[in-house]
Amino acid sequence: MKKLMCLLLLTTASSAYAAVSVIVHPSNGSSFESSTIKRIFTGKEKSFSNGNKVIPISQEAGSAVTDEFNDKVLNKSSAQLKAYWSKLIFTGKGTPPKEVSNDAEVIKMISANPDTIGFVSSDAVTDQVKVIKQF
């Protein structure tokens, strides 16, 4: 019985940490490394490798997928990221990614604009977008 309870707890814990997929428009042929994605979402990279200006799309702070993305990709907590952007905004050196409320909105925006990049829960991915990295 103890083993069964441990297995159940492990299964539940692993499902709470769903994979995050970074997505772009299907026509985007740029190359992407994890470091490039991090630079895009911290405002340090302003264009794709194809030369087009990049428009990062994020989800609302505090959502599970955003927390997972911040942790796995940016290596920052939500509080650290908020402080980071506050400093850049105050000094006029940056603008945070546009925030939307859910996976469906991210997919809709990215499928409509080849210059966007965003992240969603991996189980929300559709054929309207292209997955470039999964974390």
Present the secondary structure layout.
Layout: H1 2-16, E1 20-24, H2 34-41, E2 55-59, H3 64-74, H4 78-91, E3 98-100, H5 103-112, E4 116-121, E5 130-134
Parallel strand pairs: 2-3, 2-4
Antiparallel strand pairs: 1-4, 1-5
Which key features would you list for this structure?
alpha/beta, globular, disordered N terminus, 135 residues, Phosphate ABC transporter substrate-binding protein, D-Maltodextrin-Binding Protein, domain 2, 43% helix, signal, single chain, 5-stranded mixed sheet
What can you tell me about this protein's structure?
With 135 residues, this protein is an alpha/beta fold. The protein has a single domain (20-134), classed as Periplasmic binding protein-like II (D-Maltodextrin-Binding Protein, domain 2, 3-Layer(aba) Sandwich). Helix content is 43%, strand content 18%. The protein has helices spanning 2-16, 34-41, 64-74, 78-91, 103-112; strands spanning 20-24, 55-59, 98-100, 116-121, 130-134. A five-stranded mixed sheet has the order 3-2-4-1-5, with helices on both faces. The protein is globular, with a radius of gyration of 16 Å. This is Phosphate ABC transporter substrate-binding protein. Keywords: Signal. It comes from Pseudoalteromonas aurantia. Residues 1-18 form the signal peptide.
Strand tally, please? 5
For the largest beta sheet, what order do the strands appear in spatially? 3-2-4-1-5
CATH-assigned homologous superfamily: Periplasmic binding protein-like II
Order of helices and strands: HEHEHHEHEE
* Shape descriptor: globular
Reported for the largest beta sheet, the result is:
5 strands, mixed
- What structural category arises from helix and sheet content? alpha/beta
CATH level-1 class = Alpha Beta
Task: Please state the CA-atom Rg, rounded to the nearest Å.
Answer: 16 Å
CATH architecture: 3-Layer(aba) Sandwich
Total tally of structural domains: 1
Organism: Pseudoalteromonas aurantia
Protein name: Phosphate ABC transporter substrate-binding protein
Keywords: Signal
Signal peptide: 1-18
